[in-house]
Amino acid sequence: MVLPLMKLGTLLVKTVSKPLASQLKHQAKVHPKFRQSIINFAQRNHRITTQMQRRIYGHATDVEIRPLDEEKAVQAAVDLIGELFLFGVGGAVVVFEVQRGSRSEARKEEARKQELEELRLKDEALEKQVADLKIKLEELEQLAKARGLSGTIQLKPQPSTTSSGAAAKSS
């Protein structure tokens, strides 16, 4: 369920980022300060990525890096901003899902704790009832011994040996 929604969300973000990129291109043409700032941004990015690529491939890094022409710089900056936008939205979706999952787990854990507490309280109540019943049983046994009823009230049935013994017990 989550995976199709993620794909749909990614497609939506990509669809939204295309008009955003075209709007950035338009703004770069209209506003000279904005154009210059994204050109500078693209040139810095070009220098950094070129230096990283040279280091990775083992080429000389002290060689002068030629700057991009203005149109390529604007296009590179707009593409980079679009990708950063996609990355930001994707990261936000992941953070949202993690937080939602952790809140769900916290609710489940709280329900488990509450259930365990209810079981503990029920167990304590049952232990108290058993202790009260033991006390009452001891009191009954003591009363029976004190009155001498232990011989007349038999709690355990005993096997009868003769029928006359059973008649004597009933009378």
Automatic annotation (TrEMBL):
Concerning InterPro entries, the annotation shows: OPA3-like
- Coiled-coil annotated residue ranges, if any: 99-146
Domain of life assignment:
Eukaryota
Ranges where the record places region Disordered: 151-171
Entry annotated with the keyword Coiled coil: yes
Entry keywords, A to Z: Coiled coil
Show the ranges annotated as biased composition (Low complexity): 160-171
Which Pfam families does UniProt cross-reference here?
Answer: OPA3
Q: Which PANTHER family match?
A: OPTIC ATROPHY 3 PROTEIN, OPTIC ATROPHY 3 PROTEIN OPA3
Task: Report the sequence similarity comment from the record.
Answer: Belongs to the OPA3 family.
Write the protein's name.
OPA3-like protein
Q: Which organism is it from?
A: Camelina sativa
